[in-house]
Amino acid sequence: MRMDLIQPFINSTDAVLAQALESSIFIENLTMEEEAYRRKGIAAEVCLTGEIEGRIIFDVDMGAALLLASRLAGVEVSETDEELVREAVCELANQIIGNAVTTLNDQGFHFHVRPPRLHTSEQGSKSSEDTEALVMCFNTSSGKIFMNVALRYLRRPTAEQAAVAGYKS
Amino acid sequence: MEKFLPVTRSEDGKPVRYLIVDDSVFARKNLARMVETFGGQVIGEAGDGVSAIREYQRLTPDIVLMDITMPEMEGIEAAEKIVRDHPGARIVMVSSVGYQENIVAALQRGARHFVQKPVKPEVLYEVIKYVMRDDATVAKSAGAGV
Question: Can you identify the CATH homologous superfamily of domain B7-133?
Fold first, then answer.
C-alpha cells in the first residue's frame, strides 16, 4: 500500500487522540494484515468511495475506550454505559478518519466518506492483493487502539497528466 | 472547560439559541456542553439533514451547528435547503472532513462558516461571535448577560 495514503491516518490519529487524551501516544507496531481482520474491542468502520476505495476499522480495547469516552464526555464512564462508549469510539473514528481524508483531499485525491458504523462481527473480510490491509497499533496508558486500513487506489490519470506522460514517452 | 464571557442576543439580552445537527449523539452532547459555556441555549437537536430542516422551521434558532456527513441527507444539502427558505439562517458547518472543496461547497450553498472537528472551544466561540456580529453582545464579565 502506498505510504502517502497511510501517513495522513497516522498523523491524524496522533493529533486527535493526543487532544482527546491530553497526552502523547505512540505507535507500538505496524503490520500488513494477511488474514481476515479479528476485532479486538469496540470497533467502528468507515467506508470510502471514489478515487480511493476501501475501509478503515478503528478498534479500541475496552480500557482505552472507557478512558476516551470519559475524557470526551467529561464524566466517568463505566462498562455499563455501553452505548456511550460505542458512541465515543464512532465519534473518534469519524474525527480521525475525517482529518486524514481532509489531508488526502487537499493533496488531490477525491473520494467520499460514509458515516461510521459499528463493526460488530468478530471477524472481517480477508484483504486481497489489491486492497492490502495495514494494521497500526497505538499504545495509550489505558490500552491499545488499532487502525486497520484497507484502501485501493483507483485514480486514473487526468487528460493533462496523460498528455504529459505521452509527450515524455 | 475554559471560561468564556457569555454571548447574548443584542435585541433582548437573552441567550443565543442553537440547533445542533449531528448523527452522533456524543458529538451533539459535546457541542451542547460547549455552547452552554458560551452562555448559549440548545433549543433543539437533529440527527440528519431531513430532521434538521424540520427542526429549523419549527424552532427558528439563532445558529445551527451542522455536521456534514450524515445519513438520510447530508449537511451541505440541508444547509442549502434551509437557507433557500430562510435567507437569514446562520449555519456553521462542523465536520471532521474539512478539505477545501467541501468548505467551498458549504459556503457557496449558504453556510456562514466552517469549524473542523475535533472542535476547540476557543475556535467555536470566536466563530459564533463572528457569525452573530452585531446581533450578539459579549458580556463584560462572566456573571453578566445571562
Answer: Response regulator (3.40.50.2300)
pLDDT in tens, chain A (169 residues): 677 788 898 899 888 988 888 777 788 888 887 677 788 899 999 888 888 888 899 999 999 999 888 888 888 888 888 888 998 999 999 999 899 988 988 888 888 888 888 877 766 655 554 557 889 999 888 889 999 988 888 765 455 544 544 434 3
Compute the nearest-CA separation of B100 from chain A (Å): 7
pLDDT at A168: 42
Give the residue from B53, B57, B64 showing the smallest Cα distance to B112: B64
Run of H or E including B32: helix B25-37
Instruction: Spell out the residues 6+ positions from residue B77 whose beta carbon is closer than 8 angstroms to its own.
Output: B49, B109
CA gap A83, A158 in Å, rounded: 45
Most A CBs within 10 Å, among B97, B116, B123, to test the A interface: B97
Closest by alpha carbon to B64, among B107, B27, B23, B20? B20
User: Is A50's Cβ below 8 Å from some Cβ in B?
Assistant: no
Q: Do B29 and A73 touch (CB under 8 A)?
A: yes
Residue type, B139: A
Q: Does the beta-carbon distance from B96 to A110 stay under 8 Å?
A: no
* Fold (topology level) of A3-168: Chemotaxis protein chec (3.40.1550)
What is the SS3 assignment for B66?
A: strand
Domain parsing of chain B, residue ranges = 7-133
| Euclidean distance between CA atoms A153 and A49, whole angstroms | 10
Given an 8 Å threshold on Cβ–Cβ distance, is A110 in contact with B101? yes
Q: Do residue A97 and residue B71 have CB atoms under 8 angstroms apart?
A: no
C-alpha cell at A142: 489505558
